[in-house]
Amino acid sequence: MERFWNEVEAAPREGIEEVQWSRFQEALRWAFERVPFYRDKLLQEGVRPERISSLEDLPELPFTTKSDLRYQYPLGLCAIDQGEVLLFQATSGSTGRPVIVPYSREDLEVWAECMARALWAAGVRPEDICQNAYSYGLFTGGLGYHYGAQRIGCAVIPASSGFTERQVVLLRDLGATVLFCTPSYALTIAEYAEKFGVDLRKLPLRIGHFGAEPWSVEMRDEIEERMGIEAYEMYGMTEMMGPGVAFSCRYRQLHINEDYFYPEVIDPVTEKVLPEGEEGELVLTSLGRRGMPLLRYRTGDLTALERGQCRCGRTLVRMKRILGRTDDMLIVGGVNVFPSQVEGVLLGFTELEPHYRIRIFKKGYMDAMAVEVEVKGEIYAAEARRTELERQVAEKLRQVVGVEVPVSLVAPGSLPRSEGKAKRVVDERRG
Ligand code: AMP
Ligand code: ZN
Is 247 in the pocket of ligand 1 (CB under 6 A)? Predict the structure, then answer.
């Protein structure tokens, strides 16, 4: 039985580490020789590549940060000649200058390989029809999934995101067996289907592959239930390549493609590497990447690593599902709160719809938070029940999250719907 797309996924640790070490040496040389930014940075810090004698010495290298990447806009980190670039992708740049990512032919091969491993692990096979509702364009979700599904040999419907009614019609008429999109867009699609009387659970659709934003386990269960599918997860970011850095197996463990991405977890404040199992910021070093090699890139994502073979047989290191980002964390009344914790609480109430918004605002000198969440129509109409439920939800949030959060139950359908990455936190502190 072909259990893995590539045998390396279940290789003995020594084998994986050997590959990592040899690719790392090449990556370091590649960055040092071809990217002036890295040459200067390494020389400045007094790092001599020849002194790094194993991956244990990695902490001697400086970090690369998102602001380094922005500062090098557009192509300061490009390590290949213009003629060798086959594709550009970019971050949205919604919070600053975008980061442009160049890919060589080899990089595109690696991307397709990593994506194929992920989709294969979810049970995607050549006979599947994949509807790709990630946005095509500079955003890596569209092409990344496209390449991966084509590598396996699937038929792809490049629906891109948006035109939700058409998504439902395509799902129904072409009988896609696999859907790719963000979890929040999956919900939007499910809602449309219900409104138009299309029962997704009766269609051939059987697998959903979701990523690009944090989502709670409760959200995953909700999507599985409403679509009648098994939901799998992808993790990645544009700066490192796009989706395909890590993927879930059928035991719902996120495996990192660590023969291409060397992971470390650091304390975001002290910047020290943390021991296995401790939660901190994920730092990734690209192995074997040509277009834009990155050394110790601080992802901003919070997780912990777990080694040891998974029940699925893979030896690739596992990472915990992303709890949030260092810059997503809300500090309310001195307590750290992640939006995903709030989501988990809300989705635990069957009377509530999975559509919510978190408002952050100033109350005196302190930051305060309030939650608006849609409630089922019959409860919205009954004021006394609504008030009682608001009280119950606020009480549960207080127990789980540890802060007082006023809750307003709003009419079904009244909050904005997502077609890509959901914007659930509204920050009213400035402007
Ligand atoms: P982008 O470069 O636009 O694809 O955004 C990458 C970021 O999206 C990551 O750094 C994470 O913060 C977030 N992200 C991607 N996949 C996941 C996931 N499976 N769970 C939680 N957050 C994710
Ligand atoms: Zn596994």
Answer: no
CATH number of the domain residue 383 falls in: 3.30.300.30
Task: Identify which ligand lies nearest to the alpha carbon of 249.
Answer: 2
Q: Kindly give the distance from the C-alpha atom of residue 191 to the centroid of ligand 1, in angstroms, as a whole number.
A: 24
Q: What is the pLDDT of residues 256-294, one digit of tens each?
A: 999 999 999 999 999 999 999 999 999 999 999 999 999
Whether residue 1 is found in the same domain as residue 98: yes
**CB of 89 within 8 A of CB of 139?**
yes
pLDDT of residue 431: 58
pLDDT for res 263: 98
- CB crowding 166-184: b at 16 or more within 10 Å, else e: ebbebbbeeebbbbbbbbb
Residues 307 and 356 in one domain: no
Question: Which of 36, 55, 57 shows the shortest CA–CA distance to 47?
Answer: 57
Q: Which ligand is nearest to the CA of 314?
A: 2
What sign results for the dihedral spanned by CA atoms 253, 256, 259, 260?
positive
Boundary residue ending a domain (327, 359, 391): 327
Coil, strand or helix: which one is 290? coil
Dihedral angle of Cα 324, 302, 87, 167, to the nearest 10 degrees: -30
In the chain, pLDDT over 90 holds for what percent of residues?
90
pTM above 0.90, yes or no: yes
From the CB of 214, is ligand 1 less than 6 Å away? yes
pLDDT score recorded for residue 323: 80
The mean pLDDT value of the chain amounts to 95
Q: Dihedral of CA 179/181/183/185: which sign?
A: negative
Claim to verify: residue 70 and residue 96 sit in the same structural domain: yes
CA of 254 to the centre of ligand 2 (A): 7
Range of the domain at 421: 330-427
From the CB of 125, is ligand 1 less than 6 Å away? Answer: no
